[in-house]
Amino acid sequence: MVVIVILAVSLLEALFILPSHLAHLKEDSSKNKWVQKLEKWQGSFANSFNQFIDKRYRPLLDKCLKHRYITLCSAIALLLIVGGYGYSGHMGMILMPEVAADEIEAGVRLPVGTTPDQAAKVAHDISNATQRMFEEHNLYEVAEGIKTNVRGTKFYRCGNCDVAPRPKGYHRRGGNRTLA
């Protein structure tokens, strides 16, 4: 709604206020030579562009409007060909590739009325389960650690447990281990 109001006010300014401001502008004959060259180039470009529209684009547009059903069918056929090519797998790219995340996150949404102590216990249980997973699969070599977070109000509580990976090339110093 706000965007519509702002666009309406902008349209009113463009239609009523801007022309009155432009009417009070005076020709300045003491312009810099670079400004004069730029204005000359802009004028020649505008003339060339208008000539292109009149001699090339307008006749093509008239033909397309005269044969509108052929134009419509051609546009739909082109849309189907391009869409089919995109879905065929021949483009050699994936529009939304699956990328490995930098963190592993487990979240729990708790019911309304959960006390902070209950939420903390759930977060502690998640942390303990993650700790057991670290120990069973020796994840200390590839991950930095575990971060547990409990947040919310009396109407909404949730707990998160994040696991952040270690940077590549980082090795923990151990008893008999050597650094690569």
Which class best fits the helix and strand makeup?
Answer: alpha+beta
Q: How far is it from the N-terminal to the C-terminal residue, by CA?
A: 60 Å
The count of helical stretches stands at: 4
Please give the largest β-sheet: 3 strands, antiparallel
Write the H/E string, N to C. Answer: HHHEHEE
Radius of gyration: 33 Å
Tell me the layout of helices and strands.
Elements: H1 2-23, H2 33-66, H3 68-87, E1 104-110, H4 116-137, E2 143-152, E3 157-165
Antiparallel strand pairs: 1-3, 2-3
Can you characterise this structure?
This protein starts with a helix and ends in a 15-residue tail after the last strand. The chain has helices at residues 2-23, 33-66, 68-87, 116-137, and strands at residues 104-110, 143-152, 157-165. A three-stranded antiparallel β-sheet has the order 1-3-2, with helices on one face. Mean pLDDT is 78; it is low at 171-180. The radius of gyration is 33 Å and the shape is elongated. The chain is of the alpha+beta class and 180 residues long.
Quick rundown:
The protein is an alpha+beta fold and 180 residues long. It is built from four helices and three strands; from the N terminus they run H-H-H-E-H-E-E.
How would you describe this structure in keywords?
4 helices; disordered C terminus; single chain; 14% strand; alpha+beta; three-stranded antiparallel beta sheet; 180 residues
